[in-house]
Design a protein that fits this description.
Elements: E1 2-10, E2 19-25, H1 32-42, E3 46-52, E4 57-63, E5 68-69, H2 73-85, E6 93-97, E7 100-107, E8 110-116, E9 121-122, H3 130-134, E10 140-143, E11 147-150, H4 154-159, H5 164-168, E12 181-186, E13 194-200, E14 205-207, H6 212-226, E15 230-235, E16 241-248, E17 251-256, E18 258-267
Parallel strand pairs: 2-3, 4-6, 11-12, 13-15
Antiparallel strand pairs: 1-2, 1-18, 3-4, 4-5, 6-7, 7-8, 8-17, 9-10, 10-11, 12-13, 13-14, 15-16, 16-17
Family: Belongs to the PhzF family.
Pfam family, one: PhzC-PhzF
Protein name: PhzF family phenazine biosynthesis protein
């Protein structure tokens, strides 16, 4: 069986920036173990798979090299980009996902994602060894889905050299959860309001280049702190990426660019895989 694939640099205005994702269009679902094996083979932060789900809507799932995840921003942007620029989809796009219905609209040359906001609270009991794992002591630690470490300067955030092995063994506040850690500060670059970095070794990705789901937490955090609804956010990884964000009630709108890096074809040896049922 032959499947088309697209590799897209999301939250990027040029190749070799932003966060790369592989997008795989399907007519019906493959078995989970096959999609997981494909994601491990691609070895990027996420591989996105989607099937048609009605007019203007698709059922979308995301896999890291180790797990299926319930929310991913950059691979959603990459999927919308492929549908709009490669597969001829028009108008607003809707995706049925494990996190509900997610919308994407095209505004000029950006794609704008509409995601649920996750509001952080001050952490009363941060995980032991957090500062040692990051290599610096945060001023404050907050928690939404992930640990949010506030630092006094963007320079400190950029200079972090975390111990990913320690982060991989760090406990989460949710039993059985995978501890994921972000570091953030007010930007010292006038082009941006805030900067961040994101570490998730337990998920199979030591440092994620640009993380849309992180900004569903960072935008409510910084919006309350800076007293503004609109923020330009920069993720200061080696590849780097910029998100134009706005908090609208209990939703976060995140705009970003995308660039097609490659079109490809995958060869799977078992044709009957395509007959696997679509999960409810």
């Amino acid at each position: 069986m032959r499947l088309s694939t697209y590799t897209v640099d999301a939250f990027a205005e040029r190749p070799f920036a932003g966060n790369p994702a592989v997008v795989v269009p399907l007519e019906s679902w493959l078995p989970d173990e096959v999609m997981q094996a494909m994601a491990a083979e691609h070895n990027l932060s996420e591989t996105a798979f989607f099937v048609p789900d009605g007019a203007g809507q698709w059922h979308l799932r995301w896999f890291t090299p180790r797990f299926e995840v319930n929310l991913c921003g950059h691979a959603t942007l990459a999927t919308a980009f492929v549908l709009a620029t490669e597969l001829g989809a028009t108008g607003p796009l809707r995706f049925r996902t494990a996190s509900g219905i997610l919308g994407v609209e095209r505004e000029d040359n950006r794609f704008v994602l509409d995601f649920p906001a996750m509001v952080p609270v001050l952490a009363t009991r941060p995980p032991p060894g957090l500062a040692a794992a990051l290599g610096a002591v945060p001023r404050e630690v907050w928690k939404a889905r992930d640990w949010i470490c506030l630092f006094d300067s963007a320079e400190t955030v950029r200079a972090l050299t975390p111990d990913h092995g320690r982060i991989a063994t760090m406990p989460d506040s949710v039993p059985g959860g995978q501890a994921r850690v972000m570091a953030t500060a007010v930007s010292d670059d006038l082009r941006y309001d805030v900067v961040s970095r994101y570490f998730s070794a337990r998920m199979g990705v030591n440092e994620d280049p640009v993380t849309g789901s992180a900004h569903t937490q960072l935008v409510p955090f910084w919006s309350a702190r800076l007293k503004r609804q609109s923020l330009v956010c920069h993720q200061a990884s080696a590849r780097g990426g910029t998100l134009w964000c706005r908090l609208e009630g209990d939703r976060v709108r995140m705009g970003g660019h995308a660039v097609l890096y490659a079109r490809g074809e995958v060869f799977l040896p078992v044709p009957r895989l395509i007959d696997a049922p679509i999960p409810a």
